Amino acid sequence: MTPAGRRIVAAAEELFYNRGITAVGVDLIAEHSGVTKRTLYNQFGSKDHLVAIYLTGRDQRWRSLVRAAVDASDTPAEAVTAPFEALRTWSETHTRGCAFINALAELPDPSHPAHRIAANQKLWLLNLFKELATAAGCSRPAALATQLLVLHEGAVATQPLSIDSLPESTDLARALVHASASPRR
Q1: At a CB cut-off of 8 Å and minimum separation 6, what does 51 contact?
Q2: Disulfide check for 78: which of 16, 73, 85, 121 has CB 3.0–4.6 Å away?
Q3: For 129-152, what is each residue's pLDDT tens digit?
């Protein structure tokens, strides 16, 4: 990517996250990145493509952070709740909720490339929870994965309210994993 392309992506990421995808036009992105609209279109072809690049970059960074948290876990059961620990780190700099939830709300058409990226990010996390729960020997890993995703997404969605639901969500996730991993009589 050219230096101008990197500036465009950086400006788009900041603007899309803070103001919303549909509220931000290419004129504003061009202005904030110090390029012309022509340069923006030459680099990315369309706003839709730029939105997809923005979400893909966030998704890659998020997945890397989650994988690092999983890898740093001491036990398989601890690994199941590692995405909650990753969210704690992520939330230190991303406090306006989830870019993927926002994208799904703003771009409801399932055929939109950015909608697919956002939906796939959520499905990836659900499948990761299931994979980790299975590896930890939890009973009903698919059901547990769904419960954990709901808790995780609830913690993300309530971020803008400043009620800090993440500690309670994390504690509840650990309790669910513990109960699911406990030997049954």
Answers
A1: 12, 16, 21, 103, 107, 113, 114
A2: 73
A3: 999 999 999 999 999 999 999 999
